[in-house]
Amino acid sequence: MNFIKHMARLREFMILCIVIGVILTMSFASPHFLTSRNLIALMLGLSIETIIAVGMTNLMVSGGFDMSVGSITAFIGAATAMMVTFDIPVFSAVILGLCIGAFIGMLNGLVVAKLGINAFVTTLSSLSLFRGLTLIVSGGRNISGLPESFEVIGQSSLLGIQMPIWYAVFLVIAGDMMLRKARFFRQNYYIGGNEKAARLSGISVDKIKIINYVLTGLFAGFAGIVMTSRLGSASMTAGIGLELRVITAVIIGGASLGGGEGTVIGTFLGSVLMALIVNALTLFGVDVYWQTFVIGGTLLIAVVIDRLGKIRREKKNLASGRGIK
Amino acid sequence: MSQIVLQTKGIVKNFPGVRALDGVDIEIMQGEVHAIVGENGAGKTTLMMILAGAYHPDEGEIYLRGEKVVFNSSIEASKKGIGIVHQELSLVPNLSVAENIFANRQPIKALGIIDLKKLRVNTLETLSLFGINSIDPDCLVKNLSIANQQLVEILKAISTEPKLLILDEPTSSLTDAEVKQLFKNIRILKNRGISFIYISHHLNEIFEIADNVTILRDGRVVANAKLADVNEEYLITNMVGREIKSIYGKREIDAEIGNIFFEAKSIRKKGVFEDVSFYVRKGEIVGFSGLVGAGRTDVGRSIFGADPIDNGELYLNEKKIKIDAPKQAIEYGIGYMTEDRKVQGLYLAFDVKSNLIANRLKDFTSFGFLNEKKIDDNAYACVEEFCVVTPSPDQIISKLSGGNQQKVLLSMWFSIKPKLFIADEPTKGVDIGAKSDIYNLLRQLAKTGVAVIVISSDLLEILGISDRIYVMKEGRIVGELNNKEANEEKVISLATGVEYNSKECQ
């Protein structure tokens, strides 16, 4: 499957170049940029969405899609915080929280794979359902007063770097390797590439699809726990719009809504690029309202470049006299 | 003396790196059916795209009834009277037959509102032109059979009253009976003075319908003939530039047919097929014939577990088995090569080697991780063994020609070492050279003791390759013929349920 690597590498390489370009420009332009404090802050800000993006990349490679990750993040954050305040031991509460996240993912997956309902519609419902449930369960109040043993998950450091960054880095490296090399996850490229053919190739399409949603839910749940722990409270507005940021990063990173392409490293670079742009705008004192606008522009440019590349390839294809039959 | 409708002089078309057409001269007379044949990549499609105004030639001129024309778009070509029916259907599935035929030209009332009554009347007129009364103008296109959709497509082109109609592989999804009907209709139009350019890989069709033929090879006209003066060998030799003898091959005397390997007893899929029983022996090639929609493909898919059967029994080596998913079938050693390689067979955006391993990823896995070296080795071996023409196994498969794509698909399924191999339309849309290779491969496979099922709409293919033939009609097996007693008439009369007389259309 060299071509996947090849194509994705092209895209990854391209983003990497842009990322390095932005870093260089910024380090000349602002003395505050290339400081470990700024960079760590930047990474910390990225860590939550990166954790979710690892699951989302796997899902989107298979042609799936999940709008509900932001709500799952908030819901699991709140649910775990409540369990902890009800004196359930932290370890059990975290495991339970992760299980609920995975369970929600499974519900999404069952509806999509077994009932054949469109992934966007299904997860859009879950987005509302679990945002609503978060509000109902918590009565609309933030949940704070969490014990230190819980806060240690997101607030402690290792080698001077905060734990959320370690989680994200670990998941990116492990996730990238699994998606590239492991047979189980590579089946996702086949499913995303041509679902009908995958079925006839003897791939258990439905089962794998469901597992993908389970993983997405699990990762979103984990992100929720880390976020709650780091902030020291579960916020009702946590994770609003998170799904769009994550999906944007995945697409900038080289995946498509159609499936069959994308890598975790690409997604990570996509995330970094977006964060850098936001960081740059902040350092230059550009009005925060511009941030969303610029992110939109970045996404559009990324997909337009991708499309133009494809059109060029198709033309070449035509020229060889083989594409038109 | 009839008049020349269309003439081209020295048409050249270059694509970066390739000269697709290299000085092509053709002449089409009024009221003739002019066949254009050639292997894939010979330039037929490029030439048609130029005639239909979709491409602009780099050099050369087109004359329409003696007048020089330059088309800047397909709309201009259509206005000047050149219609084209592409191989791939371009209908809107959710609109009615009438709206499809008169797309963009619907009769309107005041305020631009579509005059539905008139639309219906116009459509009925068009349909009756062909003596078709089985299609309701208000029926949605998606509810029609593929054959009828093809007919609607042709009617749509004809309703613009073209002087010249280009038909690009019009019969690729039609059964023989439907082809006869199509030819009848072409003859009606021909007698009204409409000219046809007819492109097809099916040489027997060309002999039946066309008056003259132009043979293209590598972008050049290599021969030009009246069909009455030449035979099939002449066409093939000119097309491929070498001689091919008997493309279907022959059963070798020492290749023995063994015991029954696979048997289906009264299998049923509700609403699709009923009470279907058949068997295949080791080393035997069994053909499944019948009209499109007769249930041949459905039977193939269901014994492979793609759409599992509702009732009935399946036996493998006299042992009863149950198959609910393709994964199980593959484990039992059953391979199924789909009729629709682009939609259900291949991963078009992926490279050749990734396609080759799709149905047996497990074989390339060590400790849960895929082994790139094994994948590469496998790809090189398959490409060599199956004579796939590709620059490298890393080539994206959609860039290969249809024949080579089909060989990759075949290789992918041969590589699971099937004991029962089901090939659904194994040579659909591939050229003669590749066809002959594919038949040869199927014969080789059978020779090694594999039970082979070939499902096909191509009657000559079924008769040419099968040791035994099952004919299906409306979801049931209506006849079984061995290759000594089988002939076209018998198969068609079983498939259609009517006595067939081959002179009916002449």
Order of strands, main sheet of chain B, comes to 6-7-8-3-9-10
Oligomeric state of the chains? heterodimer
Please, how many helices of chain A? 13
Please give the order of strands in the largest beta sheet of chain A: 1-2
Overall 3D shape of chain A:
globular
The rounded Rg of chain B comes to 24 Å
**Most strands sheet of chain B:** 6 strands, mixed
Stretches with pLDDT under 50, minimum 5 residues of chain B: 500-506
Percent in helix of chain B: 25-40%
Contiguous runs where pLDDT drops below 50 for at least 5 residues of chain A:
319-325
CATH topology of chain A: the name is: ABC transporter involved in vitamin B12 uptake, BtuC
In whole angstroms, the N-to-C terminal distance of chain B is 23 Å
- Cα end-to-end separation of chain A: 25 Å
Total strand segments of chain B:
22
Integer count of domains of chain A: 1
* Structure class of chain B: alpha/beta
Question: Most extensive interface: pair and counts?
Answer: A-B, 36 and 52 residues
Detail the topology: elements first, then pairings.
The complex is a heterodimer of chains A (325) and B (506).
Chain A: H1 2-29, H2 36-61, H3 69-85, H4 90-115, H5 119-138, H6 148-155, E1 157-158, E2 161-162, H7 163-181, H8 183-193, H9 195-200, H10 205-231, H11 242-252, H12 264-283, H13 289-319
Antiparallel strand pairs in A: 1-2
Helix pairs in contact in A: 1-12, 2-7, 2-8, 2-10, 2-11, 2-12, 3-4, 3-5, 3-10, 4-10, 6-10, 7-8, 11-12, 11-13, 12-13
Chain B: E1 4-15, E2 18-29, E3 33-37, H1 44-51, E4 59-64, E5 67-69, H2 74-79, E6 82-85, H3 97-101, H4 116-129, H5 146-158, E7 164-168, H6 176-191, E8 195-199, H7 203-209, E9 212-217, E10 220-226, H8 232-240, E11 260-269, E12 273-281, E13 285-290, H9 296-303, E14 311-316, E15 319-321, H10 326-331, E16 334-337, H11 341-345, H12 352-356, E17 365-366, E18 369-370, H13 372-385, H14 402-414, E19 420-424, H15 432-447, E20 451-455, H16 459-465, E21 468-473, E22 476-482, H17 488-496
Helix pairs in contact in B: 14-15
